[in-house]
Amino acid sequence: MTLLAPAAALLGLTLPAIVALYFLKIRRPTRIVPALHLWPNQIRDRQANVPWQRLRPSWLLFLQLLAAAVLVAAAVQPVLPAGAALARHSIVLIDTSASMQATDVTPSRLAEAKRQVNGLIDQLGPQDRMTIITVGPTPRIVAAVSADRDGLHRSLNEVSASNGPADLSASLSLAAGLVRPGDDARAYLFSDGIVQPLRASFASGLPFPVDYHRLGVSGENVGLTSLTVRSSAQTRAAYLHVQNFGQQPRSVSLEWRADSRLLDVRPLTLAAGQSQDLVLPVPNDATSVNAHLSGGDVFALDDSATAVAKTPRAFRVLLVTPGNVFLEQALRLRSDLQVDVVAPAGYRPSAAYAMTVFDRFLPATIPDGPLLVIDPPAGSTLAGGTALGIGRVRAADAGDPLLANVDLQDVHVGRSQDLRVSTFGRPLITSLQTPLVLVRDEPFRQALFGFDLHESDLPLRIAFPILVQNLSEWMLPPSVPSHSFHPDEAVTIVPESGATSVTVIRPDGSHRALAGAAIATFGDTDPVGLYSVEQTVAGSTQRSWFSVNLFSDPISQLKPLDRLTLPPTHSTAVQTTHQGQLEIWPWIALAALGVIAAEWLAFHRGF
Amino acid sequence: MAVAPLLEPSLLRRLEALALQVRRAVSGQMGGERRSRRRGQSVEFADFRNYTPGDDFRLIDWNAYARLDRFMLRLFVAEEELPLSVFVDLSGSMDWGKPNKAETARQLAGAIAYVALAALDRVRITVFADGPTSGGTPYRGRRAAAELFRRLQSFPAGGVTNYQKLVWPIGRQRPGMSVLISDGLGEPGVDVALSALQRARQEGAVLQLLAPQELTPEWSGDARLRDAETGLEREFTATPLTQDAYRRALQQRTDDIERAAHRRGLRFARMSTAEPIDEMVQLTLRRIGLLA
Asked: Does B205 lie in the same domain as B194?
């Protein structure tokens, strides 16, 4: 035990002072009473003003001495060595991701983490500093290099869990930025270990060691990991995936609702690790459907899933081709495209089409708007040079989002126009000889294929419909995407033409207004559920919807990791970690209060 | 009137309407207004008996002689005076409190005595402390009230209570009524005087008179207590706990006196000097049956 304020021990002189006061004799006024023998033999010294008298044993004296001694003990601020080893600068990384909402520890993993961090704060010495950073979808500095323990407690208690993943890399980067070279720093990660993989940039290490404090005990959880609505010509159906992530068989009850209207309740029994796919009916007039598992597991976030059931507004697309079944089928795969096919001879410019596809044809006047041109005829505006023999193809930029999931490994092209000198745009797919596919954003989103699809095996590969899908979505993004997003994932909202206001209504009923006509990225999507987007166009309100669901197997697995692979330490600072301190003076002061109360009671009762 | 300083004239007038209530017939030395065990002269017929020579022939019932042809004497209930003794404690402990206990005791004794004087009873006042200080000539008749009041007021309060010294003067009393007015706080207790009253065939009452300040002490804290009679001193700290202990001791003393009085056929009342003398007489003394 050490004393933070040893000088306060001088207050111990109050003890002999109290005793000295008891040596003094009290001056008492004389009172005449009719019968002295009726009064009890009671005497007590309360104040002294005449020297001296013999010291009498007294409960009050004992209690006063005890109270003074306990108060002196509190004043010297004794501290006990605590368990944790603290550096001068402690960096607390507290996981606020979705999995920390699990209640396998009472009341929740996050609450337990906060309790442990509060304990760590209490152990800070006068010279110690602490930084608190959340580990969530976006890292946040809750308290920066502070020695104010009350402020640290307050800031920590305001931390709440998000529904998103834990981006530990971002939090570690933030923490590393707060540590100066040579600082004696140590990080404490309070987490269940369910974090996104660390980025490769941490291979060189961190300027501080990281202690991992595991939270959570159980991975027993049944969750919904997918819900999609598919439409066919006759019916619409929802496809739901339920999985038991635990090691014990579980029985749950599935509630199936359309627009909050209960349609079905099904009991489900899932063996350990078993998953089940369900096909559920979707009424034609339903806007959204919702599945909910009731059975009371430790993680509620994945017990509910919502999907938009309403078919989005269709785009009209004009395909001008002498005949290309591959291209036509690839375009029709997208449910919100209404494809009209005409022969080149029948082509008439029309403003009714949102996108035009010219296959082996190009009019003299190229229409404004999104455009896909495939193998323009020689002599046309966009035609390239003399055809070249090609072979294998490759991506110009493998990370280009337009080539997402497009596997070009087995794709070959027989011949292609020479587009090396074309000023159409940047290359998307290229070869050793010439760029094969060019794309541009200005003045409109357009793409140019330099080869005839029939002179390539591309239409025979799975990459083709994916590429057409990517290109069409890039050219004609839905005003509001109707599929499900993950919590905290950004949603791009393209306002309708002429929209004067765009408002997003979140599942909790709160409104977020977006700037009128501009394309907006809406990132305030932490709550799961159904989001409604209201656009005012020409005085009328148009509504569309998107949903946010957890749908994350790594998070739903919920089992806390015993060991977490963390970056090594490259700090050159001398780690002068010391034992944490636990100040016990508040408890001693509380005891002093109790003794003083007892003394007051004894005084009042005449002991 | 000369008695005004002790009792208000209006109170005296109300007292004249009261009477001492005696449970059994008495025998006094002079005629009075009390029923006597003896037959005597009054208007209340009691009995007949045969005439024997020597009887007062004025008592022969001539109508009976006419009917029975023999002399019959008419006997009447004798009405005699009631010997009332009032023992007033004027010790040092009585000279205490507001209103002063000794002053209130004088007024109470005077009121009871006046009721008796108005009924032609014989009243003897005995003031005592560490011994009887007055046992003088008995008073009789309303005219004597002024002198009785004057004598009551002439005795100063003081001295140590000694109930033992009441035994002898009480023993000299003829059977009658006695009233003992005291705070009952003297040591040893009043029990010895009550035993003497029983032996002297006295009926009557014990009236314990206490000041409000001793019924509910209003002070607290440290003090040096001095006994009003003995002058003994003791250091003391008054707390709620000690106040409770004192009140319990006082109540115990009162209960002891009441039990001892009832055991000897005496009435008992505890009165506070805060109570007006009028209410003491008209309410308390009537409630315990001393006056009617």
From this structure: yes
Q: Which CATH class is domain A484-548?
A: mainly beta
Question: Tell me, what DSSP letter sits at residue B188?
Answer: S
- Closest residue of chain A to B226, computed from CA coordinates: A32
The reply to whether B72 falls in a domain is yes
Torsion of CA B111, B113, B115, B120, to 10 degrees: -160
Per residue, what are the HEC states of A227-282? EEEEECCCCEEEEEEEEECCCCCEEEEEEEEECCEEEEEEEEEECCCCEEEEEEEC
**pTM exceeds 0.95, yes or no:** no
Taking all residues of chain A, what is their mean pLDDT, rounded to a whole number? 86
Give the tens place of pLDDT for each residue, A258-316: 998 898 899 999 999 898 999 998 988 888 999 999 877 889 999 999 998 877 677 88
Question: A34 CB near a chain B CB, below 8 Å?
Answer: yes
B39 interfacial to chain A (CB closer than 8 Å): no
Per-residue pLDDT tens digits for B75-102: 655 455 678 889 999 888 898 888 899 9
**Which CATH superfamily does the domain covering A88-217+560-576 fall into?**
von Willebrand factor, type A domain (3.40.50.410)
Å from B273 to nearest chain A CA?
14
Q: What is the pLDDT of residue A166?
A: 92
The ranges assigned to domains in chain A are 2-79+585-605, 88-217+560-576, 315-475, 484-548
Q: Residue B242: which of A29, A37, A40 has the nearest Cβ?
A: A40
Both B39 and B144 in a single domain?
A: no
Asked if the Cβ–Cβ distance from A31 to B242 is below 8 Å, we say no
Three-class DSSP labels, B44-71: EEEEEEECCCCCCHHHECHHHHHHHCCC
CA–CA dist A342, A322 (Å, integer): 8
Q: Is residue B29 part of a domain?
A: no
What number is the average pLDDT over the span B176-193? Answer: 88
Is B116 part of the contact surface with chain A (CB cutoff 8 Å)? no
Contact state of B234 with A41 under an 8 Å Cβ cutoff: yes
Q: Tell me, yes or no, if A54 comes closer than 8 A to chain B by beta carbon.
A: no
- Beta carbons of A34 and B219 less than 8 Å apart: no
B183 touches chain A (CB under 8 A): yes
Q: Is B97 on the interface with A (CB under 8 A)?
A: yes
